[in-house]
Amino acid sequence: MSWRPTLFVLAAAFVAVFLEASIGFFRNLLGAQIDLLPALMVYTALTLGFTSILLLAVCGGLWFDSLSLNPLGASVLPLLLIGILIYRSRELLLREHLPAQLILGVAAGAAQPLGTLFICLNAGARPLLGWVSLWQWIVMAAGSGVATPLCFKLFDRLRRALEYQPATQTSFRPDREIKRGRS
Amino acid sequence: MLKKSHYIILIFVVLLVLVLLQLPGGTMGKLKLAISGLFLPLFGLSSSTHEWLGQAKEGLVPRRELLRQIDQLRLDNQQLQLRLQQEAQIWNENARLRGEVGWQRQIRWRLALARVIARDPANWWRSLEIDLGSRDGLRTNLAVLTSDGLVGRVQSVGETRSLVVLLGDPNLRVAAVVGGSTNETGIIGANVSAPQEEGMIDLDLLSGAGSVRPGQSVVTWGAGGVFPAGIPIGKIVDIRPKEYGLSTEARVKLAADLSALEEVWVMLP
Q1: Which value does ipTM take for this structure?
Q2: CA–CA separation, B4 vs B13, rounded Å?
């Protein structure tokens, strides 16, 4: 198994959490920050293996929580659950289809904050919730839906650029070669 | 598709997360600051890029404009010097009178300038990270403010960075007093009804007497020992009765703009 795709995904998760903490563009424009980790998890679960899912959930979740008032570890379990659920049924999912990527991205983006909030509330934290949280939830789900196909495009292109391409098979067969002239 | 070994690893991870969730607040805060320390090179890079862009922008300002700004700053400086002299006289007089009456001497604010390096990526909290820590004399529960007014409180402190809870977060409550002639006191809490209004917070537990009016200023009361009295918080926008008129709740427009914070002052002990 090549570790390179896993390292790319982890690096992307690291940069995504950094951008979420340092750039307030979406927060100022839409009133909600978009989380890119669910989109990355959809890509990882449909493309890479169990170890990659586990590493992304643990590292991504801990990085996210370390910059937030979330109890440490609150984001890990929802991410892991999303990854495992997609991984278990990935042979039934049409990985290459844009609608499938969009729907999975929206579902993951909607499930992640709900799971995290559930854990936060059970851990005794009192997050800021109101009617506007519904709007933020919609923005997060939609943002994740848009980000998922972009993740697929970006990482697939990166893989094609950095990995050996499979040798193409030619139609030439030496045993069927017609040899001209006298042998 | 999942093997037996996978299930064992999953159980281990779940148990690890449960242990993390049960950590005491102080330990969790330190662990968080340690993990978020991994982002320091990126934050440093971002900060230096920001500075470089600022300098590049300043390089484009015409000389005439710079000279005009220098003149303006010189004028402001002279006015502030005069005000400082006046304030020093008032301070001495206040200290002398307090001594005569036998009241406790007021302590001058010691402030440290901190740069905001990150904001909470989750939508359901209001917090940020600053670049000062225990090395700079910070400890938990110190007031954080700007020149406009109160911003929040230091929640946890690392060696070089600290986490600040902002006004409007459910974890921060401030005893406040409505200025003017009313002396009405209340508790500043989260604006749960409309948390999207980042510049708005609720002032709860005011008396139902109806002496509070829109436009009045709200400052810290000083009760509780965390925030010294007299730090501006904001202005009353509107008032609504609560609990069948037994108490009043007011919406307060914050004096400091929390969405555009780049530098803050931490009030040192």
Answers
A1: 0.82
A2: 14
